[in-house]
Amino acid sequence: MDNENERRKKLILCAKKEFMEKGFEKASLRAISAAAGLTTGAVYFFFKDKNGLFGAVVDQPLQRFLQVIEQHFSEDLETDMADLKHISGDHDDVAEMIISVLYSDRDALLILLEKASGSSYEGIVDRFVELLEKHNTALARNYLAAYPDKRVNEYMLHWLSHVQVSAFVHLLTHVDDKERAVKEIKPVMDMLVESWMNYVLE
């Protein structure tokens, strides 16, 4: 059993390197297996196919990120909209939490964002936008329930959902250092919240 676990870990480690260098479509199962000192049969035994192996590289970091996001969304929806206000820095803890999980396995998430073409994870950024827009819509409904004389700018809600995702994608793909990422994202978070308050909610 221990040997099986070690073989599986070797395949994932070698696959991570291969996917990072060549992307999903051009990655070679033969090259991955050879680098791990195993046959391609081992890939099919442990992961069924190349897509399953790709999932073994990226899915755990992805699920950790989604768990943090869902926790934030849940807390967001508990906000009393009648008391809605924004003070600079009041989302710093959220920013730090998100950066922490993104950079805990940055390479895997870079593979997910940039190397997933041809896999079942292709278009993951669009899926993030859909997820965020769904949350923003729910948040806006809460706002309208508290302020029936107000309105939500649907276009700005959709646009801002894209911008919010792009902010973190750009940071992850351009900033190597986690501490610098935390520093850079905090004013961005302030700007995003201010944009929500001033342009989505009217």
Protein traits:
202 residues, mainly alpha, Arc Repressor Mutant, subunit A
A few lines on this structure:
The protein has about 200 residues and is an all-alpha fold. It has helices at about 1-25, 30-35, 40-45, 50-75, 90-105, 105-115, 125-145, 155-175, 180-200.
Number of strands: 0
Q: Which ranges are low-confidence, i.e. pLDDT below 50, for 5 or more consecutive residues?
A: none
What is the percentage of strand-forming residues?
Answer: under 5%
Largest sheet: none
Whole-number tally of structural domains: 2
Task: Describe the model.
With 202 residues, the chain is mostly helical. The protein has nine helices and no strands. 78% of the residues lie in helices and 0% in strands. The protein starts with a helix and ends with a helix.
Set down the secondary structure blueprint:
Elements: H1 2-26, H2 29-36, H3 40-47, H4 50-77, H5 92-103, H6 106-114, H7 124-146, H8 154-174, H9 178-200
Helix pairs in contact: 1-2, 1-4, 1-6, 3-4, 4-5, 4-6, 5-9, 7-8, 8-9
